[in-house]
Amino acid sequence: MTFINPKTDYAFKKIFGSSESKDILISFLNAIIYEGNPTIADLEIINPNLPPQVEGLKDSSLDVKAKLADDTLVIIEMQVLNVESFGQRILYNAAKTYASQLQKGQGYRMLRPVIALTITDFEMFKNSNNLISRFVYKEEVSNLPYPDNDLKLVFVELPKFTKTVDQLETLADKWLYFMKYAVTIAEIPPVMDSVPEIHQAFDIADRVNLSLEEIANIERQEMFIYDQQGTIIKAERDARQEGRQEGRQEGIQEGRQEGRQEEKQAIARQLLDRLDDATIAQITGLSVQDVQNLRSEV
Q: Mean pLDDT in the chain?
């Protein structure tokens, strides 16, 4: 068996956002957002596009969007490349989803909570070891939660998931293993196959069940991703190399400057008993204060 890469845009939407994905998405969200608790009993997968309702705002395209039984909206994005302003895009989409709920004439009481779940194939928070990070509004000093905490940001950083098959314990472990490694395995591990929704996800991801056109689309996306990742890696490597060269040049320059300074001070010391401070400063290029400091040392 060979499986498509769930991290590509087309595959992610097909596995988690298609008409047959309802049970899969419920299991996935319960695992990631609610720590495996069966909090979500039902949901509706809806059109993920966020057309502008205010003139001047840009369109937004999400990967998956769902409305839970309590009307909470969940927007989900799978992001492979660490592009510029990505964090701002997450905030923009969450805020836009929250604001676009209201129709003309409706009051703010009609607003329902929004959860923005983002899965990244890179580290967003390099100073944190958390695999899953959750952000809500709190008072800056006391951490007092905001009374109407209707916006919640949840991030999953796949590079921080390092468990092997033998170490899979929780439902989140099994889903994240699927996300990260499905494309590399030839058969479904028994510990994961025991979860019906994960088994169903593997069935959707099985290349046998896809058309040649679908496979071609996915392969083009993968090739684009690999090319972009290579470009980013090269740019970062070149930047580090340039930084090292600049550092060396700065070090050489600083050394030369320090050497010249020491040379000036040595000449000034030889003149202290023969000339006044102003004259020594003029000859050596030191300031009068520097010469006075040298005289006090002597």
A: 84
295, pLDDT greater than 90: no
Residue 45 near residue 64, CB atoms below 8 Å = yes
Measured from the Cβ of residue 183, the count of other Cβ atoms closer than 10 Å reads 17
Residue pLDDT, tens place only, 106-130: 888 889 999 999 999 999 999 999 9
**pLDDT value at position 196?**
96
CA 205 to chain centre: 25
Residue that wins the pLDDT comparison between 5 and 244? 5
Pairwise CA distance, residues 128 & 111, whole Å: 32
In whole angstroms, what separates CA 139 from the centre of its chain? Answer: 24
Give the side-chain half-sphere CA count within 13 A for 133.
16
Q: Give pTM, 2 decimals.
A: 0.73
Q: Which two tokens stand for residue 122?
A: 């890179």
Closest by CA position to 189, among listed 214, 168, 216, 215: 168
Q: How many CA atoms lie within 13 A of 198 on its CB side?
A: 22
> Edge-to-edge strands of the sheet including 64-68?
43-46, 64-68, 73-79, 114-120, 151-157, 132-135
HEC readout, the chain:
CCECCCCCHHHHHHHHCCCCCHHHHHHHHHHHCCCCCCCCCCEEEECCEECCCCCCCCCEECCEEEEECCCCEEEEEEECCCCCCHHHHHHHHHHHHHHCCCCCCCCHHHCCCEEEEEEECCCCCCCCCCCEEEECCECCCCCCECCCCCEEEEEEEHHHCCCCHHHCCCHHHHHHHHHHHHHHCCCCCHHHHCCHHHHHHHHHHEHHHCCHHHHHHHHHHHHHHHHHHHHHHHHHHHHHHHHHHHHHHHHHHHHHHHHHHHHHHHHHHHHCCCCCHHHHHHHHCCCHHHHHHHHHHC
